[in-house]
Each structure stands twice: as C-alpha cells, then as structure tokens.
Amino acid sequence: MNAWGTLDIATAIVRDDLNSSFRKTKKITIEKLPDKVLLNIFSYLNHREICTMARVCKKWRIIAYDTRLWRHVSLRPEISGLHVGSLEALLALISIRFGPSLRYIELPIELITHTVLHELANKCPNLTHMLLDFSTAMQLHDFSELQGFPTKLKYLCICLSEVIFMEGFMRKIYNFINGLEILHLIGTYEKVEEEEEEVYEVINVHKLKSATPNLKVINLYGINFIDDSHIDAFSSNCIQLECLAVNYCAKVTGSTLKVLFHRNRRLRCLLLSGTSLQSEFLMQVDWEKCPIQELDITATDLSTEALTDMLTRMPGLRFLSAGQLNGFNDSVLKAWMETGNVRNLVALDLDSSDNLTDDALYKFLSKYGHQLHGLCLSGMTHITDSLWQSVLPILNNAKIIVMGTPERLAGNVLIDQLMDGLANNCPNLQRLELRWDPENLRFSDKSQKAIDTLRVKCLNLKSLVISDGRYYEIVKANFERADRMTVVRTLTNCRVSNYYLLSNYKDLIFN
C-alpha cells in the first residue's frame, strides 16, 4: 500500500519556449491525481479490493464509497468474497452506498428478509437485476409482513433449495414481477445422489407463469421436478418467449414441443442438453414451420432416424450442439448435406460423437467450414491433428475452436504445426481449447516461434485453454511476457463452448 503513495507515475519536464532552458522537474504522485481519474482506476478493482483501498486514507475512502462503483454487487461470499455481518450493516449499505446507482444485486439466504427487500424497493429505484440464493436454505425467514419488492426488475434469478417450499415467498412478490423479461430458476442438479429420493416441487411453476406474461428468456437449469407440463404452462402464457433452456431437467421428454412451437412463434433458441428426449415426440414436430435457429440436444440419446428427420426439415438452423449422441453418424451428416438446409449454420458442436468418421467430417467441413464461427470436434480419438491441418484453411471465419481428447492416443500431436495453421488461417479466433493429453503433445525448440505467431496474428484471442503440463507452462509464460496475463488457462478451471455464440448468451449467464 505504501508504494501507491510514493509511486512516480509521470515526470514532466517543461521546456521554456523563450530560452530553451529546462525548468525544474515536477513529480506528480498518485495523491495529486484528480478524483475522476482515481475513480476510473478503482472501477477496475473488484469490491473486495475496493474495500481494502478504503482503508488507505480519507480521500480514498470517499472515492471507494462512490455509488458509481457499486452498481453491480454480489454479497455471496463464495462468489465475491464480500461478507456482510449483520442485517443492520446491509440496511446501512443500501441507504448510503448503493442507492439509485444500484442495478444488480446478489443476496444469500441469510440476507433475504422482508426488511431488506423493502429497503431495496424504496432506496434503489433503478434496480433491474436480482439474484436470490436459497440453495443452502434449511428454512426461510418470515415474509408475512412483506409489503414491498423492487418493481423495475427485468432479470430475476432464484437458486432453489432441495426441500424448502417457496410458495409463501412467491405469493408475496407475484404482483411486483409482471415486468420480468428474463427468469432463471436454478436447481440442485449437481447435488443429486444416485439413489432415487422423493422429489419435491418446491416452487409452483403454474402460478408463476401467470404472474410473468412478458418473459422472453426462461432458464430452468437442473431442476429435478421440471417436466413437460411445466414447459406447456409457460408456453400458454408467455407469448413473447424467445429462448427456453431446460438443460439437465431429466424429466423433460419433449411431449409438449409440438404445442410449444405452435404457440410461441418468436421462439428462436431451445436448449435441451441432458434431458430425456424421446425420438417419437421429436418426429411429431412440424419442423418445416419451426422458428428455431439455435438448438442443443447434447446427451439426449436420440435415434439416427429422429436426427435425420429433424435436421432435414429445419429451415433456418444457425446453431447446433449435438454432442454425445450415438445416433449421430455419417448417414445423418450426409442426409443433412443433401436434403437439409445448412447454409445458415454458424456453430456446430459434435463433441464425443464417435460414430462420425473423419472422412464424413472432412466432406462436410470442406463444403460449409468457411461459414462456421464456432466448431467443436473434441472427445473423438480418431479426429487427430492431421484432419485439423487439412480443414484449417477453410475455417477462416472461426472465432471458437475446440479440439482434442483427454484420452491417450496411439500417435502424437504435432502442436507446433497446428499452432502455425491456426495463426495463419484463423485471424478472427477468440477462444481456443486443446483437450489433448500433455503426453501426446510433441513440440520442439521452435515452439516459441509458433506461439509468437499465434499471439501476434490472433489479436482477438481471449481464452486459450490447454491441459496442465510442460507445454501449458511454455505458452502461459509467452503470453505473460507480452502482458496478456489472463489468456492462457488450464482445463481444470476453464472450458470453451459454442454457447458464447448464442444470441441470448449474456441473458443466460448465472453463477
């Protein structure tokens, strides 16, 4: 901290225009910077760091409390590191530090009380985004006296508990949330044990849909009680629906999809990864009239017949994620090319679809690779660097590429040539993931040159993910020497997905 006070950020030597002599050098320390410059510097810090800065001096404390630095606030310690010790402290923060500037807030279960919600409604009139985390709740606070709730919310995320029933709380807020456009209900998918346990419907979706007629984006993630009847309920009331995500809702079979598409003519994005889709229901859908442009059917066990029937009849598909499907084979790809409409496709994910041959993929990419912005061909041992080297010249518009498999290969991957190919053919590349086992990567003393070429030519590269190992360390050091500190990551803390290309990607983000 002492270094900040003495840091010499500029030395101004002022030349005298009359006699060309030099005046005495003048040192400017950070203490003499204008408040608006300091405020801008503080804006690059997270809130935990800002709280630390507030202890330096009175001036910095005033700047740290500027409400413009507290527009997006998470009070969940596991996410932000911020912990509010008491409700009184939070009420003071709402009144003094947040106020009209607050746009987004995340609250853990212990801070969700009728008093807090009432204060947010009164003191933060511009609050539009809220996350309420009930996931660790063993019991709820008493909301019988709740009379106020933020009324300008456009985004509401509720993390559900496994056993706590939410209807008492929800009944109190129904009249305040009819302006919602984005709704997230997040379940406990990752906590579910293998043993079958009794499933509780902890929130009444059929009542909720009546209170939220203006929804455009609905994300029901990993909720163990969500089934087709709940999709039918939302579709009957939310005529403006544009995006529906029910990833990892295992009871969804697709029986109401035909009705969904008939009612919701604006629906463009449907995410069904990890559901229990049945082929017979998908083959009943009128895909020719279907407005869907973005579709995720990863890990759904659909048959080859159903996949062929669907893809050859969809008129405007732009985004397809169809990984981990045994039914997706060469015949599906061939039929899609011959009788389907592929000219609008910009993103394709076929992760771990082992029944596709490299020959069929080469033919497909040779014809349509130039239009792809995102391509994922990971998880297949027979797709090696040789196929990638042959198709990279075609992928000149690619922004996202995922390749490789963590399984040990019989041969080796010549990573230097691959890096050169990426650098010379994919100038728009933003995200790249190499999933190969580090033991399969072969590189030479010239590796630095290949990495330099990638770093210099792919200036938009934001994320380069590599398996932890010696090559990762080499690449990481190279980028850090060029002051690109956050680009290179390992598979243990980052995964790349075509989801970045979804039209509603930012609306679908939750944590």
What would you note in describing this structure?
- By secondary structure, the chain is α/β, with parallel strands linked by helices.
- Among the domains are: 2-60, no CATH class; 195-345, Ribonuclease Inhibitor (Leucine-rich repeat, LRR (right-handed beta-alpha superhelix)), CATH 3.80.10.
- 32% of the residues lie in helices and 15% in strands.
- It has helices at 2-6, 35-42, 47-53, 58-64, 77-80, 87-98, 114-123, 167-173, 205-211, 228-237, 257-263, 279-282, 304-311, 330-339, 358-368, 385-391, 415-425, 447-457, 470-481, 505-508, and strands spanning 8-12, 26-29, 72-74, 104-108, 129-133, 155-159, 182-186, 217-221, 243-245, 269-271, 294-296, 319-321, 347-349, 374-378, 400-404, 413-414, 431-434, 441-442, 463-466, 488-490.
- The strands form 3 sheets. It has a 16-stranded parallel sheet with strand order 3-4-5-6-7-8-9-10-11-12-13-14-15-17-19-20. The chain has a two-stranded antiparallel sheet with strand order 1-2.
- The chain starts with a helix and ends with a helix.
- The model is unreliable at 1-25 (pLDDT under 50).
Defining traits:
32% helix; alpha/beta; two-stranded antiparallel ribbon; disordered N terminus; Leucine-rich repeat, LRR (right-handed beta-alpha superhelix); 20 helices
How are the strands ordered across the major sheet?
Answer: 3-4-5-6-7-8-9-10-11-12-13-14-15-17-19-20
Task: Quote the average pLDDT.
Answer: 88
Number of strands: 20
Structure class: alpha/beta
Largest β-sheet summary: 16 strands, parallel
- Uncertain residue ranges: 1-25
Instruction: Report the radius of gyration as a whole number of Å.
Output: 27 Å
> What is the H level of CATH, i.e. the homologous superfamily of the domain at 195-345?
Ribonuclease Inhibitor
Shape: globular
Q: How much strand content do the residues show?
A: 15-25%
For the record, what CATH class of the domain at 195-345 applies? Alpha Beta
Going by CATH, the architecture of the domain at 195-345 would be Alpha-Beta Horseshoe
**Terminal residue distance:** 32 Å
Number of helices: 20
Amount of helix? 25-40%
CATH topology of the domain at 195-345: Leucine-rich repeat, LRR (right-handed beta-alpha superhelix)
